């Protein structure tokens, strides 16, 4: 996490700058290193109907790495831009507000250092939040066994205060997670949508901005 300078700290203590603004800015500054992703594929070998039929929640994964291409395709399925002129994405959003963020917790992804990354839909790239064993931090905070053995995981977070209806973030997270499920089937990847954790614990462990609320964790790995 970016260090807070003496002047900024003084302003915080005097009440001129809210602390959450400083923390959010710090995360954005740490995210400046962009990781370009392979372009998504728009025609797969598995039909929508077959993906629906074979969709299952998978909690055990092979000890094999995921490729950057697989990770990129999963992220695009979750929140990729499908109409650049209007900013529309793969998953619907009430009033096209797009109230969620998708994070990648990388553990064993070929060509990508372990760490926490935020998906940037408009540029189809990753912003690095921090490098290191983010997956173990996530496991310790959430206490869900599939996280530990998965080569990667997604964390879907929402902005409850940005919407006239805070419940919209949960609907939007559900839309995105189903996209991930179906895309995972076509790639031979297993996943499970997990919400059995304390959001504040995950937020603290992942150093998320105060305004973001973790909703889902989706481990990813070969079946």
Q: Keywords for this structure?
A:
single chain, 223 residues, alpha+beta, NADH Oxidase, seven-stranded antiparallel β-sheet, two-stranded antiparallel sheet, 9 strands, globular
Mind explaining what this structure looks like?
With 223 residues, this protein is of the alpha+beta class. It folds into two domains: 30 residues, no CATH class; 190 residues, NADH Oxidase (3-Layer(aba) Sandwich), CATH 3.40.109. It has eight helices and nine strands. The strands form two sheets. Strands 1-6-5-4-7-9-8 form a seven-stranded antiparallel β-sheet, sandwiched between helices. It has a two-stranded antiparallel sheet with strand order 2-3. α3 crosses α7.
Quickly count the helices: 8
What best-fitting shape do the alpha-carbon axes yield? globular
Report the span from N to C terminus: 35 Å
Order of helices and strands: HHEHHEEEEEHHEHEHE
Helix vs. strand class: alpha+beta
Q: What's the CATH topology label of the largest domain?
A: NADH Oxidase
Strand content: 15-25%
If you average the pLDDT, what whole number results?
A: 89
CATH superfamily of the largest domain: NADH Oxidase
**Strand ordering within the main sheet:** 1-6-5-4-7-9-8
| Uncertain ranges | 1-26
Our count of domains comes out at 2
Number of strands: 9
The CATH architecture name of the largest domain reads 3-Layer(aba) Sandwich
Radius of gyration using CA atoms only: 17 Å
Largest sheet: 7 strands, antiparallel
């Amino acid at each position: 996490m970016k260090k807070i300078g003496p002047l900024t700290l003084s302003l915080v203590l005097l009440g001129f700058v809210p602390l959450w603004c400083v923390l959010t800015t710090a995360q954005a500054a740490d995210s400046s290193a962009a990781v370009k992703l392979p372009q998504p594929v728009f025609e797969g070998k598995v039909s929508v109907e077959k993906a629906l039929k074979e969709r299952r929640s998978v909690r055990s994964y092979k000890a094999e790495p995921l490729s950057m291409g697989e990770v990129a395709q999963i992220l695009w399925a979750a929140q990729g831009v499908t109409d650049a002129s209007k900013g529309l994405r793969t998953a619907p959003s009430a009033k096209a507000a797009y109230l969620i963020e998708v994070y990648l917790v990388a553990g064993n992804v070929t060509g990508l250092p372990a760490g926490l990354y935020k998906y940037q839909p408009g540029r189809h790239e990753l912003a690095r939040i921090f490098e290191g064993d983010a997956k173990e931090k996530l496991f310790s905070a959430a206490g869900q066994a599939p996280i530990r053995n998965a080569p990667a995981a997604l964390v879907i977070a929402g902005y409850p205060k940005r919407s006239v209806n805070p419940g919209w973030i949960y609907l939007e997270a559900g839309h995105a997670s189903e996209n991930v499920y179906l895309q995972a089937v076509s790639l031979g990847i297993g996943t499970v949508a997990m919400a059995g954790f304390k959001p504040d614990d995950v937020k603290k462990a992942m150093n998320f901005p105060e305004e973001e609320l973790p909703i889902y964790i989706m481990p990813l790995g070969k079946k």
